[in-house]
Amino acid sequence: MKPVMLAKDADSGHSGCPSVYVDGDDLVVQGPAADLSELANVLPGETAARIKISVVRQALQRLADTG
Q1: Which of 6, 8, 36, 67 has an alpha carbon within 20 to 30 A of 22's alpha carbon?
Q2: Structure confidence by residue, pLDDT tens digits, 45-65
């Protein structure tokens, strides 16, 4: 099944970034790359993205509303 977009930053215009998707039991975050050197315990193959807290809240609310 294809990931479903839950929320995106309203300031991003018509592009899809940054945004939050649901993919089965996982959330996927799309956004500008974060500096991995600032994070603890980054494992091989992992990456990180920056996203506004408001977009995460919007995604979580939509997820809760859809059950």
Answers
A1: 36
A2: 999 999 999 999 999 999 999
Segment 6-31, tens digit of pLDDT: 999 988 877 668 999 999 999 999 99
Give yes or no for a contact between 29 and 18, defined as CB atoms under 8 angstroms apart. Answer: yes
| CB burial of residue 19 (10 Å; 0-12, 13-18, 19+) | buried
The helix (H) or strand (E) run that includes residue 60 is helix 53-66
Q: How many domains does the chain have?
A: 1
51 lies in some domain: yes
Strand order of the β-sheet with 26-30 is 4-8, 19-23, 26-30
**Whole-number pLDDT of residue 12:** 81
Structural domain boundaries, residue 54: 4-34+46-66
